[in-house]
Every structure is written in structure tokens, then in C-alpha cells.
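[Discussion] Sanity-checking designs against the backbone

I'm trying to build intuition for which residues belong where. Below is a C-alpha cell string of 524 positions. I'd appreciate it if someone posts a full sequence so I can compare it with mine line by line.
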């Protein structure tokens, strides 16, 4: 892979961090509890407890947040909000005498009254002890091992304090004053929170004691709707450049802003994401585009110089049409993604073939604007599996006006059925050609060639199976009605099948999104 402008790229932390050595503290041993609580017992009221951490070395005017232990009921958290598979894992470990906590983004989402994408657990048990506690459980990951506990069709991730204690990268160090007057358990929890990516993800929730632990100011940043790294952003992003994409994903999904320092290094370290493997990049892009925050994600990727690295073809579209980094306006690509978002949510995602199909469809339409009637016939033919005659008959009955704001839609013309049929098939060929471009390193590298002032890459992270799946989604338009394909009836989406990539569901949802964009309901 060739990368423009990365020669000599290096990020040096501007500070030093020396944590108290973990082996200087006795390994915690949590005794078995006499009476095991269940997650259905009533909340208990506790008092808030605060500990001062002093000041971060090198920033004497910046006080480290006070430690807070808050009653979960006062924060609006109920154990009824926890998914049943997660409760089974929590109860299974608690009944064996281990400390268990919910940790990370799920605690943040519970406080915000949002549906967590998933629930992560951290425990005092060793990973081998977690494996012994459940019949279907395995340890995954080499660098940062965790347990995958299978409860029915759900996988619950469980990490161990003993494992996360080894996560600190030896190449990056931090300087944080040791905690004052804390017990052993507080120290272990605090140290784990320091390893989190963002303060709003650094909360721990004990669902049995009904306590939320906040050692790094996460609650305050949730109130301020701010995404801020736990340690200085330059070191945080150098330590794990995937945090750059996670920051965008979180801010897009929650509508949060970045702290000034985080925003600065997001932009400065944009090209460092090319160090990630392609599978990880696809996963992060899918998290952004398939869970209900695609439009906001694309805007942030563009604003911070990441779009031209990840999706140069779409970045070139923005540049060509003068869409500024902080532009509040819209265009057809953003409108398509906005209508995609209206149908999705963190617990109702789509398969990656849907958003990739939308990107390819839009690029083909942007390269050569088409009659709205041609677009309508194309979408109907995709939906019904290639029955062009039916698609044409339905499209001719459309009386709603199309959205004239989009340059991708040409002026409607008076065409006969044969001409329309030929143009629809030609458009299908164009979509297939764009898909090939998006998986060709040379074509991707040339997308931003007209704009040498912008960083760009030849990055292709779309695997062959995904490319073929999207091709199949559109091939029916060129090849005619598919034998045995039954188009979806009704408007209700089967989200389980959509997430699995069911051809019927993906085609139906694609057609619905395009129609909502070309023929919006609010036009008269």
C-alpha cells in the first residue's frame, strides 16, 4: 500500500507518565459473599464518597477529577435495563464470589437512557476461572485477551482486572499522582479506568451494590456532552490509533462534541489510522454507518480529514461540489445516509452490504445524473428481483414531485419503455463499475488526485465476499427476473434478517431509502 505524505510520520508524547508499579500492590483477593444478591432486588441508597487525586504533573492548573461513588438509582439506572444474557453472566460470576461490574460505553448509555449496543463486564476472576464458570466460553485475543461467554445466540464479553492491568504500552508513559487514602479495590478500579479510551467510557457500575464509580470525570463530561481522552490525546492516539475512529463514532452517535485537545489531535493524527488492518477498518466503518449515525459520522470524518483517507471517492464528491469542512448544508449523499439512519438504531443495525450499496449507487448517479423515473425503475427492479416490466408499470404511476435540489437527478424526459429499459440497465452497469472502482487500489488512489493539497490513500478495506454480495444485490437489474426470488411484501423491516444480510431485506430497505430521498414525503 502506498500512502501519500506519511514519510517520516511520527508522534511523540509531550509528557511522561509513571504509574505506581502494579506489583507493589498486593493482588486483590475478594472473598466469597455470604448471601448472593440477584439483579432483581430493590435499589439500596448509598452516600456519595469523594476522594481528591491532587493534580496532574506538568499541569498544575488542571486538577484531576474527584473520585465519585454515586447511587445508580439517582442516575436513573435500573437493573431492568440490563439485557438478560448479561444478567446471567453477572449472576454466574457473583454467585462464585467474584466482584463483577459493567464497564465502558454501556454504563454511559444507561445514564443517557440509550440502548447500549452491547454490555461489557469486568471481573476480579481470572479468565481461566471465567471459562470454568460457563459451559460455552472461550478466551479470545492475544494482546488483550478477554472471554466470550455464549448465552443462547448472544456473546457477552468479559475481561479480567488481572489482564487489563497489563495493557499499558511500554512505549508511552504517563505521569499521574498516586491516589490518596484509597483502599485496594478503589486502586484497582481507578487503575483500570486510566486505561480507558475516553472519560465518558471510564465508568464502572456495580449492579449489586447499586454504585456507579467515576474516577476520571466521566459523569461531568457526559453532562457537558464532551468526548475527551482519559490521558493527553497525543499519547492516547499514538498508543491506539483505533481510538480516533471510536471517537468519531461515539461523537456521531451521541451528538457530542470533542474537547479542544482531542479535536486537535484527531485531525493531526488522521493518517495514522492506516496502521490498522483492513478488517479492523471495515469493522469501525460498519459501526459508524450501520447503527443509525451514518450521516453524522460522514460529516465528522470529512470535518477532521479522515474521509479522504478512508473513502477518497466520497471525499472527492464533497470537494468537487464545494462542500466545506464545517458545512451545515446537505447533499444527496448525506440525505441518503440520513434516510438510512431513520430506519436503524444501535439495537437494529443493517448489514454492511446495504451502506456499501448506497455509496456505489450514489457515486454512479453523481458521475452521470439520471432521470428520476430511471432511478425509480432501477430501485423497483432491485426490490422485485429484476422484473423490469413490473418496475416500469409501477414507476409510470408515480405522481409525486422529485427533489430538485440534487444535481444527481436530471430533468425528467418523455421516453418510451424501450429507452427507459435500456437506460436502467446502463445505470446498473455503472453501479457495478463503481463497485469495481471502490475495490481497486489504483482507482481509489486517483480519486483525490485532482486535489493534491488534501491527504489521500489507496486504501481498500472492502473484502471480496462483501463486494460480491453487493454485486448480487444489483445484478438482477441487468440479467432479468431471478428465478425463485420472492420480493418482500409490506413495509415492516425484519431487522434480524437485515443484520444478517438477507437479500430480500437488503433490497427492500435499499429501495425504500432511495425512494424516500428522491421523492421525499414533505414535498408537495
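Best answer:
Here's mine. Compare freely.
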Amino acid at each position: 500500500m502506498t500512502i501519500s505524505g506519511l514519510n517520516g510520520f511520527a508522534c511523540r508524547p509531550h509528557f511522561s507518565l509513571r504509574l505506581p508499579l502494579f506489583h507493589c500492590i498486593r493482588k486483590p483477593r475478594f472473598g466469597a459473599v455470604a448471601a448472593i444478591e440477584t439483579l432483581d432486588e430493590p435499589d439500596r441508597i448509598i452516600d456519595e464518597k469523594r476522594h481528591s487525586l491532587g493534580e496532574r504533573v506538568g499541569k498544575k492548573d488542571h486538577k484531576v477529577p474527584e473520585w465519585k461513588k454515586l447511587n445508580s438509582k439517582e442516575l436513573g439506572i435500573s437493573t431492568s435495563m440490563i439485557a438478560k444474557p448479561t444478567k446471567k453472566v453477572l449472576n454466574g460470576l457473583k454467585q462464585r464470589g467474584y466482584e463483577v461490574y459493567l464497564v465502558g460505553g454501556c454504563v454511559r448509555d444507561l445514564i443517557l437512557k440509550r440502548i447500549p449496543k452491547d454490555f461489557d463486564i469486568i471481573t476480579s476472576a481470572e479468565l481461566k476461572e471465567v471459562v470454568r464458570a460457563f459451559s460455552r466460553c472461550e478466551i479470545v485475543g492475544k494482546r488483550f485477551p478477554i472471554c466470550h461467554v455464549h448465552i443462547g445466540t448472544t456473546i457477552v464479553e468479559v475481561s479480567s482486572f488481572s489482564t487489563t492491568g497489563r495493557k499499558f504500552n511500554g512505549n508511552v508513559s504517563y505521569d499521574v499522582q498516586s491516589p490518596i487514602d484509597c483502599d485496594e479495590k478503589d486502586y484497582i478500579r481507578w487503575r483500570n479506568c486510566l486505561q480507558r479510551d475516553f472519560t465518558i467510557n471510564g465508568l464502572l457500575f456495580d449492579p449489586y451494590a447499586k454504585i456507579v464509580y467515576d474516577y476520571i470525570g466521566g459523569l461531568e463530561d457526559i453532562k457537558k456532552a464532551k468526548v475527551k481522552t482519559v490521558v493527553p490525546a497525543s499519547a492516547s492516539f499514538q498508543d491506539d490509533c483505533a481510538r480516533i475512529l471510536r471517537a468519531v463514532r461515539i461523537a456521531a452517535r451521541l451528538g457530542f462534541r470533542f474537547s479542544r485537545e482531542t479535536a486537535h489531535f484527531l485531525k493531526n493524527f488522521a493518517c495514522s489510522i492506516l496502521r490498522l488492518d483492513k478488517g479492523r477498518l471495515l469493522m469501525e466503518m460498519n459501526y459508524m454507518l450501520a447503527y443509525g449515525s451514518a450521516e453524522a459520522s460522514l460529516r465528522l470524518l470529512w470535518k477532521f480529514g479522515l474521509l479522504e483517507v478512508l473513502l477518497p471517492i466520497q471525499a472527492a464528491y464533497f470537494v468537487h461540489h464545494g462542500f466545506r469542512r464545517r458545512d451545515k448544508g446537505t447533499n444527496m449523499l448525506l440525505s441518503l445516509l440520513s434516510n438510512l439512519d431513520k430506519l436503524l438504531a444501535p439495537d437494529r443495525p443493517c448489514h454492511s452490504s446495504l451502506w456499501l450499496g448506497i455509496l456505489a449507487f450514489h457515486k454512479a448517479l453523481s458521475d452521470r445524473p439520471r432521470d428520476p423515473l430511471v432511478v425509480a425503475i432501477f430501485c423497483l427492479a432491485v426490490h422485485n428481483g429484476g422484473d423490469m416490466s413490473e418496475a416500469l408499470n409501477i414507476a409510470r404511476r408515480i405522481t409525486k414531485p422529485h427533489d430538485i435540489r440534487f444535481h444527481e437527478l436530471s430533468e425528467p424526459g418523455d421516453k418510451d419503455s424501450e429507452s427507459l429499459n435500456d437506460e436502467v440497465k446502463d445505470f446498473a452497469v455503472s453501479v457495478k463499475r463503481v463497485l469495481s472502482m471502490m475495490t481497486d487500489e489504483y482507482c481509489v488512489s486517483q480519486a483525490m488526485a485532482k486535489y493534491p493539497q488534501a491527504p489521500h490513500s489507496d486504501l481498500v478495506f472492502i473484502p471480496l465476499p462483501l463486494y460480491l454480495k453487493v454485486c448480487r444485490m444489483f445484478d438482477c437489474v441487468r440479467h432479468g427476473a431471478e428465478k425463485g426470488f420472492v420480493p418482500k411484501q409490506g413495509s415492516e423491516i425484519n431487522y434480524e434478517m437485515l443484520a444478517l444480510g438477507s437479500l430480500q431485506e437488503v433490497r427492500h430497505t435499499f429501495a425504500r431509502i432511495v425512494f424516500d430521498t428522491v421523492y421525499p414525503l414533505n414535498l408537495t
